[in-house]
Fold:
Amino acid sequence: MVIISAPWIVPIDIPVIQDGGIVVADGRIIDIGKRDDLVRSYPQSPETSYSCVLMPGLVNAHMHLELSHLQNSIEPLPNQKFTDWIDALITLRATNEYSREKIVETFTAALHDQYNSGVVLIGDTGNEDYEELRRLGDDFQPKVLRMLEHLGPNREACRIALEKLTQLDTRISVTGHAPYSTAPELLLEIKTRCNQLQHIFSIHTCESREEREFLRTGSGCFRDFLEKKNSWDGVFSFSESGFAGTIEYFDHLGLLDDKTLLVHCVHVSESELPLIKERGARICLCPGSNKFLDVGLAPVEQMVALGLLPALGSDSPASNKVTDIWREMQLLVKSHPNLEHSAILAMATLGGAKALRHEADVGCLSVGKKAKFIHVSSASLKRCSDVNQLIKELVSGGKPTEVEWV
Structure:
């Protein structure tokens, strides 16, 4: 048993504690409060003191680690359609000369960067089953929840994907890509498997304006893209009846529940947000990627007002020049100045833990949580004289000068 103390403790789920302490035993938090009170309550326990702020590790709820080698490779062009950028990415992946060893090397380096920035948990989706990512155990920092992403834009692609699903080890999590690239039949099978195995179902949702057009009418750039790829065969049944938006479509399929993670939610309407809350689904925002691709701003204020605490994700290194959750918080401050800084910090920690269903272990500093948290320090943080200044600096100041695991 040990007491870990610091001038500031930021638990997230309760108010900030000045001159606080955390009591740790057997890898878990067993008490938290004012340092002097804890010293009196645990007189035989040694104390380790830190100089600035103790807080939970960050959570990056949406990444594509296997694309780390493509960072800064594709710049979107002015007035470019969303599908033009997708097409460029597909072409680059098909023609790139990186060896498998090089790809593993780059995503391993990306993992170390996440660890060094204070990330405790990552939700990662990818198209290839890299054993190197599946071998990462609970003791590896950060922990990676790997989800194998499936596309099926036509009947033949669905048949192949469904056949592969039956052959997969049940320890491997799977998910769909997006409503315009994974047909309803395949989405249903994937979601059924996720529910049976208690896996997260994470899917790109409402990322672009064009997606809503596709769901409503079955036309637009996504239809043109599939036809260009000879992948349009009527498998998307909504091309005849139409849906008001992606959330209505997902609900029609029965995809929305408390194990569903809706990534992006930029072009989600105010009328769709209550349905997300009612079904218990979670949201992950990716401000850096959305800014890079110029797809717009998510209605974050409305989400928070409804009690929908989103997670934060850096998305693909191919669509975000800096895959850093500290920067994602900064971008939210700039684009949504009316948001409370404390809410943004909660998104980067507890919101991500809940989205990935790991709130029993990480996301906040409370009794029973794993003793996996960080100490952060900088000259600016040390100058903070009250709680509001401290939270503002943590959220808007960018990555602190010092980030270390306790």
Summary: The longest strand covers residues 17-25. The chain has two domains: 2-56+365-405, 58-355. Residues 287 and 328 are 6 Å apart (CA to CA). The domain at 58-355 is CATH 3.20.20.140 (TIM Barrel).
